[in-house]
Amino acid sequence: MHGALHKYFHWGAIASLATLIVWCVLWETVVAPLQPGGSWVVLKAAPLLIPLYGVIKRDVYTLQWSSMVILLYFTEGVVRGYSDTNRASALMAWGEAAIVCIYFVCAVLYLRPYKKAAKRMAKELLEKVNKVSIKK
Questions:
Q1: For the CA atoms of the chain, what is the radius of gyration?
Q2: Is 81 within 8 Å of 94 (Cβ atoms)?
Q3: Which residue, among 45, 41, 55, 51, has the nearest Cα to 13 in the 3D structure?
Q4: Which of 117, 90, 116 is nearest to 27 (CA)?
Q5: Between the N and C ends of the chain, which has fewer C-beta atoms within 10 Å?
Q6: How many CB atoms lie under 10 A from the CB of residue 112?
Q7: pLDDT grade, residue 39 (50/70/90)?
Q8: DSSP states along 35-67
Q9: Alpha-carbon distances, residue 44 vs 34, 36, 72 (angstroms)
Q10: Closest by alpha carbon to 66, among 35, 91, 57, 126?
Q11: For residue 70, what is the DSSP state?
């Protein structure tokens, strides 16, 4: 379960999440803020800090829920990529969507062995329960 490829998926998830945090902050403060000088939209990066520690610590539960929550950022990236008239902002939006895709793929592929193991354990438990109920 802990091969070299598995380690790369973990590092990919960490790197893409950290990159997304920096990307959002730079987007809304320096590259293409909604208002000159920056705006409160930069706070959209703050919720990404919540799962960062769990992702670093390889917490399976954190990786599971964060892979779903991160899709909100994908949605924002696609919507702003299509709708922003500022070219720099539109490019940043598409970049955000791409980074989210990298995180999602890395998180799902990292979690894959755990999901297989959980299914196997559930199947074994169900078989044991069925054997016990048949004997009675």
A1: 20
A2: yes
A3: 55
A4: 90
A5: C
A6: 13
A7: confident
A8: STT--GGGGGGHHHHHHHHHHHTT-HHHHHHHH
A9: 13, 17, 11
A10: 57
A11: T
Residue carrying structure tokens 């959002």: 24
Q: How far apart are CA 96 and CA 100, in angstroms?
A: 6
Tokens in use for 117?
Answer: 């193991």
Coil, helix or strand for 99? helix
3: helix, strand or coil: coil
Pairwise CA distance, residues 3 & 132, whole Å: 37
Which tokens hold the place of 64? 């599971």
Whole-number Cα distances in Å, 11 to 18, 33, 48, 107: 11, 30, 16, 10
| pLDDT level of residue 27 (50, 70, 90 thresholds) | very high
Which stretches does DSSP call E strand in 9-134? none
Any idea where the domains of the chain sit in the sequence? Answer: 1-33, 34-132
pLDDT at site 74? 98
What tokens appear for 58 in the block?
């390889």
